[in-house]
Write a sequence for this structure.
């Protein structure tokens, strides 16, 4: 069996194991075993991929396989990975593993919760390995649908409203996406839905002009593209901890990945026609998200609007369409996925103890729960781009690559986007100072305990990943930049 198919098979076996599990310990055992296998698989795939590339493999996609599903429409289960897919699979595996421990004590309906959580992760893994447009769309839908129940049943606050808003907006994006995919398939005149085959056909300019915005918008809604981002803060704020981690850490990356792999790669002329329009929207996303985070008082809303800003930066860098900026965009996806998962994990742990996310009611937590407080400081420093952590290397690569353009329009957009660095520092330092330092004003909080072993394991894994990417980014950037090259060369030509 192809190693990539295991990324779909293992979660399906986890679902079977969860279904027959009879008690909480068995449920936890299935999740720990399954998520550990996925993490080992992702690490093995990464090492194998790098080894093959260093050994001289020059194919655009490695570990490819294809099985016909529906011959009349040339739909096939086609899989393959390049450097971008590999790092996304590794990110997904890390967050599923740490999310399992972040949900260790979740109640009620623990078994059902983990089943939906696993189904969501099945869609995510399947999406990143797919090279067939229809198969990719199918896994995309599988990843979206569980969000409604995960938020609506296990969420907090206005959970029904948030779940419905998220579902309706993302399904609206999916409708655009389906129309766009069919437009690409029929417009290309290809007898396959395989991306690697379609790209060899020249899609007519008029087809690209019509269908590029539909595909980019369809994926862009999930990437929190302004003004279609409003589902994201509400969804994040209401979701349970591990769902927020997977949602912000991985699910939103499907948007940027799809925009790059499908919209821009297959429709380079459409990118040239519509690129500046969407670049303006992404520049607004970057700055608007950061400014919105400044005025929030709920910890989850602060991080949710921060995610709008950072995911906007991914689409911004992709549309700049230089090799350096595109490499930076993938690094930003990886970095943001890790640090926002760390943020949401810590926020969930703090909320589980204090029963409030209002920064006006929190203070002096450094003395009460030092482990969680230090973790929050590290996450904050990564978010504002401290050298040595993942945020710095990703944002520097994005802005350096974007500034390679010599025209006034692109450089003006870049300068505006860089202001988000300052704004991010404002809200991160404000929150850290407000909730962690000073004297504790609520006597009930003085009785609280620090992190348990399962929480410490999740937090330490994420901190190691954030610091590892920040201190040794070269192996990741080399893997990514080689895979970015074919897509960028399409755009330049």
């Amino acid at each position: 069996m192809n190693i990539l198919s295991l990324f779909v098979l293992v979660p399906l076996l986890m679902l079977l194991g969860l279904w027959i599990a009879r008690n909480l310990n068995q449920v936890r055992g299935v999740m720990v075993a399954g998520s550990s296998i996925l993490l080992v698989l992702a690490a093995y795939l990464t090492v194998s991929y790098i080894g093959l590339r260093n050994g001289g493999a020059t194919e655009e996609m490695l570990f490819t396989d294809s099985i016909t599903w529906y011959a009349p429409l040339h739909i096939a289960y086609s899989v393959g990975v390049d450097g971008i897919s590999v790092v996304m699979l590794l990110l997904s595996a890390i967050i599923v593993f740490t999310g399992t421990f972040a949900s260790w004590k979740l109640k009620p309906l623990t078994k059902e919760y983990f089943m939906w959580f696993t189904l969501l992760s099945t869609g995510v893994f399947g999406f990143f390995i797919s090279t067939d447009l229809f198969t990719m769309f199918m896994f995309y839908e599988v990843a979206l649908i569980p969000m409604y129940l995960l938020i609506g049943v296990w969420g907090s606050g206005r959970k029904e409203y948030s779940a419905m808003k998220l579902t309706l907006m993302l399904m609206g994006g999916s409708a655009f996406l389906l129309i766009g995919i069919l437009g690409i398939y029929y417009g290309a005149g290809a007898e396959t839905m395989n991306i690697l085959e379609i790209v060899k056909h020249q899609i007519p300019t008029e087809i690209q002009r019509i269908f590029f915005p539909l595909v980019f918008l369809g994926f862009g809604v999930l990437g929190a593209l302004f003004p279609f981002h409003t589902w994201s803060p509400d969804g994040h704020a209401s979701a349970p901890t591990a769902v927020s981690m997977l949602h912000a850490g991985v699910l939103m990356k499907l948007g940027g990945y799809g925009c790059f792999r499908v919209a821009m790669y297959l429709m380079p002329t459409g990118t040239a026609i519509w690129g500046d329009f969407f670049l303006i929207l992404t520049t607004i996303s970057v700055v608007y998200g950061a400014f919105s985070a400044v005025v929030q008082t709920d910890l989850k809303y602060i991080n949710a609007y921060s995610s709008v800003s950072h995911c906007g930066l991914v689409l911004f860098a992709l549309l700049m369409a230089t090799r350096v900026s595109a490499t930076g965009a993938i690094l930003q996806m990886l970095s943001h996925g890790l640090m926002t998962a760390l943020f949401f994990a810590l926020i969930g742990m703090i909320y589980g103890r204090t029963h409030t996310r209002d920064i006006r009611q929190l203070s002096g937590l450094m003395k009460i729960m030092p482990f969680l407080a230090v973790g929050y400081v590290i996450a904050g420093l990564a978010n504002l781009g401290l050298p040595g952590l993942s945020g710095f290397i990703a944002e520097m690569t994005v802005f350096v690559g974007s500034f390679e353009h010599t025209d006034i329009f692109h450089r003006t957009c870049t300068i505006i986007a860089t202001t988000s660095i300052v704004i991010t520092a404002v809200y991160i330092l404000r929150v850290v100072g407000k909730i962690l330092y000073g004297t504790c004003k609520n006597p009930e909080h003085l009785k609280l305990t620090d992190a348990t072993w399962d929480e410490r394991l999740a937090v330490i894994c994420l901190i190691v990943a954030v610091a590892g990417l920040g201190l040794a980014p070269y192996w990741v950037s080399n893997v990514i930049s080689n895979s970015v090259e074919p897509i960028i060369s399409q755009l330049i030509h």
User: Anything to note?
Assistant: Residues 327 and 481 are 5 Å apart (CA to CA). The longest strand covers residues 62-70. DSSP finds 19 helices and two strands in the chain. The radius of gyration is 21 Å.
